């Protein structure tokens, strides 16, 4: 199935967690009745998180796998090899995807995510880390999250 939205890609589990968290954040709390500095700061933080979740859920692509064409894009599980010979497998998706066990999640907006977006197996890409050093990485494979999850259950 082809994804037509340009919103963030979420697994159904992450979507459900975010919907639950949003509902919990919107519930009034006993702290709302007081108004001391701590409560005001907590409320401001809560309102910020509510806006963040609402923005994330707005237009989100939930559980729709991208095409199984081996191209790196959100919703794909990527396996890469670094120049030092180390390999890593991770989900290219929204950082709110926590809870995938050993499967790390990298944002498409991270330096590694931006470098790999659109790569095909065998493509070698480079990105800069905060120190300014260049890191080279080769895409070994990319498969839709649903297919990866089904083969590793």
From TrEMBL:
Phylogenetic placement of the source organism? Bacteria, Bacillati, Actinomycetota, Actinomycetes, Pseudonocardiales
Its name, as the record gives it, is GreA/GreB family elongation factor
One GO MF annotation is: translation elongation factor activity
Q: Which UniProt keywords apply?
A: Elongation factor, Protein biosynthesis
Q: Which residues form the Transcription elongation factor GreA/GreB C-terminal domain?
A: 71-140
* Pfam family name, one: GreA_GreB
């Amino acid at each position: 199935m082809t994804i037509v939205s340009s919103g963030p890609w979420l697994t159904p589990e992450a979507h459900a967690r975010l919907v639950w968290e949003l509902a919990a954040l919107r519930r009034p709390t006993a702290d709302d009745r007081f108004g001391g500095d701590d409560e005001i700061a907590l409320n401001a933080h809560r309102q910020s998180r509510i806006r963040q979740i609402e923005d994330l859920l707005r237009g989100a692509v939930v559980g729709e796998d991208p095409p199984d064409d081996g191209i790196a894009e959100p919703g794909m599980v990527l396996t890469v090899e670094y120049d030092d010979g180390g390999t890593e497998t991770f989900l290219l998706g929204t950082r709110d995807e926590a809870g995938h066990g050993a499967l790390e999640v990298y944002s498409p907006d991270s330096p590694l995510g931006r470098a790999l977006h659109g790569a095909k197996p065998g493509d070698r890409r480079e990105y800069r880390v905060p120190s300014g050093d260049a890191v080279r990485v080769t895409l070994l494979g990319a498969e839709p999250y649903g297919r990866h999850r089904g083969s590793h259950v």
